[in-house]
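>> received
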Amino acid sequence: MTEDTRPKTGQEALTLLKEGNERYVDSLSNSDPSMQRRPGLVNDQDPLAIILGCSDARVPVEIVFDQGLGDLFVIRVAGNVVAPSQIGSIEFAAEKFNTQLVVVLGHSHCGAVTACVETLIKPEKYYSPNLQSIVDRIRPSVYNLHELATANGHDVDADELIDRSIRANVRMSVSQLKHGSRALEDLTSSGQLLIVGAEYDVDTGKVRFLDS
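>> returned
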């Protein structure tokens, strides 16, 4: 969407969504295999993977992994953080659909991680209580990196710190899923569930899976 075509008001944006849905409904009868699968998804779903990703509009999960309707069970939240509602959603999919893969998907240029780094570099930075709650969930994965970066007394390279923090945050979320839920821990220990981390590069479109 270009600057010229971007809606100027919420009502204009709503109109675009309505028009888009009409095009989608019209496309359901075309020859796209993902659309042909739709009738079988009305009563059930069988996702091949669960994705805990960031809400960032530049990371459309189904498109990134070239998957169709019903292929992915997607939970998106700013900073791909782990909270009880996200854990519960993953437990539901793993147990209900026997889905055996969870991917925590972070991405480059993450605004939530950037916000967390900014609060460490500039402690006076203020965010609303709700946004601060997201920052606080990211903070443990960033704090030690910041301490190491400042230990030599030199200025912090904010961009490098953000890049490293994005991966550290993904790894922390993976660990929280593996050890913060008895149900997921049991499935992981028995080999019925694999939980991995990954980073999507907004610039190249490449997903790099991280070592645990």
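>> Strands lie at 49-53, 72-76, 101-107, 194-200, 207-210.
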